[in-house]
Specification:
The chain has 333 residues and is mainly α. The protein has three domains: 4-103, Tyrosine recombinase, N-terminal domain (DNA polymerase, domain 1), CATH 1.10.150.130; 119-298, hpI Integrase, Chain A; 301-333, no CATH class. Helices cover 53% and strands 4% of the residues. The chain has helices spanning 4-17, 23-40, 50-62, 73-92, 119-126, 134-149, 153-157, 187-208, 238-252, 260-273, 278-285, 290-293, 302-311, 313-316, 323-328; strands at residues 164-165, 170-174, 180-184. Belongs to the 'phage' integrase family.
């Protein structure tokens, strides 16, 4: 009889070594699958049956988290996707006779809502950092970089000083699946980043007792740092950026509660609105599949909307403009 806990360890090692999955993905899969094992109490993968999966779905749908809220369908599906992957691995790599992974059906999800900031909201947010103080210089650079590049917050905080090239205005990013890509910095973001790097080089040693050439690009600036602090101990974290955006959004009076990811959405939406092709946007965002990028095409193209308003008979009334007249607006007759 195969030990399912041992097989789970093998699966996680397979994801790390053969599939080159990120540390975050490994932690998530470990969490989802151990939650299933703790629920099911099974020790042999052959005991994993469709009825057991159905019971697990029911358990997750009734589960109340620490915030006293139910799990949303997408979160439940993350558990089921991890389980599917584990079953596929057992069949293909371990030759274990288990239920087919396609027997696990995902829950239906509504259309994904994409929160974006309009130009006015974005300007209000970007005006909030006090650029006369170190934290404000850093925070302004962070906000500008998020909107300029569409980086995930985890990618931004992982940046090292060696990853940026201010001359070419390019940044080398280690994205999902540990794949490198290059992102580009706008004029405004480059100026903000130059200000931060200049301040960092001039003041870092006296402020935290470390050399200015230390690795992390963005650093924590709150509190006293121990003399033996290492570079990684001072790296600005994901929660720090989330708190930063929350604080400035509150000061800006933004009631839609934007997150760092909202700036990523706003970046993609801004490019598409101004005519960028979706394949280029996909590459800049680091999306593996074009379908992931297509969620941004919900944004109304102002030019197309104007064409619809002007020429659709439901707006103008029947016969308000002949077909010939409408065509001559675009094609010389």
């Amino acid at each position: 009889m195969a030990d399912i806990n041992k097989l789970l360890l093998h699966y996680l090692e397979y994801l790390e070594l053969e599939k080159n999955r990120s540390d975050k993905t490994l932690r998530n899969y470990d969490f989802y699958l151990r939650r299933f094992l703790n629920f099911s109490k099974i020790s042999d993968p052959v005991s994993l049956t469709p009825s057991l999966v159905r019971d697990f779905k029911l358990y997750l749908s009734r589960f109340i988290d620490k915030s006293n809220e139910k799990l949303i369908n997408s979160t439940i599906n993350y558990h089921l996707i991890a389980l599917r992957g584990f079953l596929s691995y057992l069949i293909r790599q371990e030759n274990v006779d288990v239920m087919p992974p396609d027997k696990i059906e995902l829950l239906k999800q509504g259309d994904r809502e994409i929160g974006v900031l309009d130009e006015d909201q974005l300007e209000r947010l970007l005006k909030q950092p006090n650029r006369e103080i170190p934290i404000g210089i850093r925070d302004f650079a962070v906000l500008q970089l998020l909107f300029s590049t569409g980086l995930r917050v985890s990618e931004l905080v992982s940046l090292d000083i060696s990853d940026i090239n201010l001359k070419t205005r390019e940044i080398s990013v280690l994205g999902k699946g540990r794949k490198r890509r290059v992102v580009f910095v706008s004029d405004r973001a480059a100026e903000a980043l130059e200000d931060w790097v200049a301040w960092r080089e001039k003041n870092l040693k006296s402020l935290v007792g470390l050399q200015a050439e230390m690795t992390p690009l963005f650093l924590q600036l709150h509190g006293r740092k121990p003399k033996d602090a290492k570079a990684e101990d001072l790296r600005l974290g994901v929660r720090g950026v989330q708190y930063m955006v929350d604080r400035y959004a509150l000061k800006a009076g933004l009631v839609n509660k934007p997150s760092p990811h909202t700036l990523r959405h706003s970046f993609a939406t801004d490019l598409l609105r101004h005519g960028a092709d979706i394949r280029s946007v996909q590459e800049m965002l680091g999306h593996k599949n074009i379908a992931t990028t297509q969620i941004y095409t919900h944004v109304t193209n102002p030019q197309l909307k104007e064409v619809h308003r002007k020429f659709h008979s439901g707006n103008n009334g029947w016969g308000s403009m002949s077909i010939r007249e409408s065509l001559t607006e675009f094609i010389p007759m």
